[in-house]
Amino acid sequence: MNVLPPTVTPPVRTLMGPGPSDIHPRVLATLARPTVGHMDPYYLQIMDELQSMLREVFRTKNRLTMAISGTGSAGQEATVLNLIEPGDRVLVCVNGVFGGRLVDMAERAGGEVTTIERPWGEVFTVVEVKEALARVKPKVVAIVLAETSTGAWQPIEKIAAAVRDAGAMLILDTVTALGGIPVEIDKWQIDAAYSGTQKCLSCPPGLAPVSFSDRAVDKILKRREKVRSWYLDVSLIANYWGGDRVYHHTAPINMTYALHEALRLVLEEGLEACFARHRRNHEALKAGLAAIGIDYATQPGHALPQLNAVRIPPGIDDASVRNALLERFGIEIGAGLGAFNGTVWRIGLMGYASRHTNVLVLLAALEQLLAEQGHQFEHGAAVAAANAVYRDRK
Amino acid sequence: MNVLPPTVTPPVRTLMGPGPSDIHPRVLATLARPTVGHMDPYYLQIMDELQSMLREVFRTKNRLTMAISGTGSAGQEATVLNLIEPGDRVLVCVNGVFGGRLVDMAERAGGEVTTIERPWGEVFTVVEVKEALARVKPKVVAIVLAETSTGAWQPIEKIAAAVRDAGAMLILDTVTALGGIPVEIDKWQIDAAYSGTQKCLSCPPGLAPVSFSDRAVDKILKRREKVRSWYLDVSLIANYWGGDRVYHHTAPINMTYALHEALRLVLEEGLEACFARHRRNHEALKAGLAAIGIDYATQPGHALPQLNAVRIPPGIDDASVRNALLERFGIEIGAGLGAFNGTVWRIGLMGYASRHTNVLVLLAALEQLLAEQGHQFEHGAAVAAANAVYRDRK
Questions:
Q1: Distance between first and last Cα of chain B
Q2: How confident is the model at residue A243 (pLDDT cuts 50, 70, 90)?
Q3: What percent of chain B has pLDDT over 90?
Q4: Whether B42 and A11 lie within 8 Å, measured CB to CB
């Protein structure tokens, strides 16, 4: 190599896409604290504290609550590979990209997979799930609480009860949910849940919080054959996080520091206050967008506050608006994935990115860019409508 | 949770164990730079630069050279799961913990595994490997270049040639090797190599550099069945790192920054200078230890410069010395694993930890602690012997 690239000097962005979202400055600072050994007594204490805080955030007493050493997708696959044995009948509910990914993972785990589907942006009813449970008689069911590709917020309590009544285990995707909307692992009796750090936890990507019920742990310990991945074998990882501290792999020390601080932030604010903040900023954004003729692509009544999937107005060029937001305003929003590609924007208001300043500057920037592309609306209406929501809610 | 734990304030350690090793201050600073989106044009540029620098460090032109989003063990499993298909005959060379782990992973991949073994601390001869190749006729062979559990440096060039002559693919563990001793992926014609960030690259754990030959990529693309892990499926990950930038998972952005800076540091110093520094500090440590009666547990002539596995002197209490090093001097060294547990210390001189100040302070501290435990030696001899090596080498 003749010339080395320069050191990393990233542009400062406002991250309002589907993740990573804005990182809290305290989390970034904590990330760079001095690395200690992964068997250092200090690190073991940090792991314990992290587990306690994760249990609070997941609202669970599950002993096996920890962070997988990979991104959210690694946590997803850890739940799937550990709970499913070859030949197990599995029911996967698919209404977006991440349900589809569960199917792929479950098949690689050797599961006999049946799917039920809803159009993109819609959610499942308990009736549909019950019908499928009776038909398929699955050992494991998997569903997404907050579909990052569509912004759909899946009602889960009654479905979870139906799955339990049918004698199956329930895997719940809470990647975009955790910290943004209620996740009630114990109340809903979820058997395995996974999340990521880079959504509503205001932390860089790199760890995957997971929680397994005692029932799930029991099933894993009684498996007939080994989990198909050594790296994601929860029975081995549990001995590393648990009291025995049996060496498995070397945990990402500094990412653990960062997640520790991120969980401290959520619990300092309080979960309910955190959810209320996400709702308030969503309502302001929604009012602002409505005022300039931008609607949601998600089934009415089921839009996630932290991930706003909205229809690109007719005549507006998707990529040029997103590029201008990034280049001229430093704001990242997300493109549509899959069925929503080219017709939907995904606006994240997750974690530290869920701030009224972010809502206002995005609406102001959108007004400028849409006006340039000839979109017809009352100039100033978006910001005024958002401000009205904040004023009423003060 | 009634009371939140305090923010992370780690003790400052000198990391001279088997990893993580001392992080270079420039790497820690880079880790905390502002997070951008994983599809941001700036991040795509950083990924490209990182790949180019990794190719330099691996000494390869392999297009598929990148970092897996997990720790070294994730890279290890990525090579195994992708190269091995169910029913493939696999030969694994086992002379320590990490060879043993390759067996476990290869079995989970569905391989029909045969092992050859050497006692802990010893290395394989090309004759032994050739005999096994003729007997087993494997499709894939796996071996460790730098065995972190024993400090053994495996001569590889002739073995690699024999494996290729036998028509098999070779997986090489370079976790503790990369950046500390020569790794010549192209010259040796290695098909798949994996490493970790937290050994000789002076970077926190969290990413796994990997490189696959075109031949290996061809085998992966022609697989009869899908890789058993979606997260570690290299054909999917390659599309994310490659020109198409197809979304797979969300990469650990800040860890990528850190590895980028770590690779810059290695290439700034120059690989040969970096290897020479590792050798020089090893020789000084070895001379110092010999002067106070501490020998190596590794086969003579095959001790790694960066990982020194040494015999604990008779009458010395393993744990109390390691604990005192940590508590009184802030120095971490490693315990023995497996067959070496309780009888061996593992002293890492890896990456930024390979400094003459580290060698001298460790020897001085050991002199103090061994004297307290009644070990007989000429006081001052260890430091004097190390200094003599540095003086001669100036």
A1: 58
A2: confident
A3: 96
A4: yes
CB A49 within 8 A of CB A39: no
The CATH T-level fold of domain B25-268 is Aspartate Aminotransferase; domain 2 (3.40.640)
- In the numeric block, which tokens belong to residue B190? 């290695």
Provide the 8-state DSSP code for B166: T
pLDDT, tens only, B277-317: 999 999 999 999 999 999 999 999 999 999 999 999 999 99
Q: Could you confirm whether domain A270-392 is CATH 3.90.1150.10?
A: yes
**Residues B329-345: pLDDT tens digits?**
999 999 999 999 999 99
Which has the closest alpha carbon to B171: B220, B238, B230?
A: B220
Q: Which tokens hold the place of B225?
A: 């069945």
Q: What CATH number should be reported for the domain whose range is B271-392?
A: 3.90.1150.10
**Alpha carbons A289 and A347: distance in angstroms, whole number:** 11
A105/B1 Cβ within 8 A: no
In chain A, what are the domain boundaries? Answer: 25-268, 270-392
Sequence letter at residue A349 = L
| Helix H or strand E segment including B67 | strand B64-68
Residue A334 bridge partners (DSSP): A346
Q: What is the reported pTM?
A: 0.98
Write the CB contacts of B304 (distance below 8 Å, at least 6 apart in sequence). B146, B151, B152, B153, B176, B177, B180, B181, B282, B298
Q: For A221-234, what is each residue's pLDDT tens digit?
A: 999 999 999 999 99
* Interchain contact, B250 vs A36, CB within 8 Å: no
Tokens of B134: 């003729």
Residues 100-119 of A with CB under 8 A from B: 101, 104-105, 107-109
A156, A204, A147, A202: which is closest to A177 by C-alpha?
A147
Q: Give the model's confidence band at B393: pLDDT under 50 very low, under 70 low, under 90 confident, else very high.
A: confident
Closest alpha carbon to A184 in A214, A156, A154: A156
Q: Provide the shortest C-alpha distance from residue B127 to chain A (in Å).
A: 31
Rounded distance between C-alpha atoms, residue B258 and residue A361, angstroms: 31
Question: What confidence score (pLDDT) does residue B1 get?
Answer: 66
B180 to chain A, any CB pair closer than 8 A? The answer is no
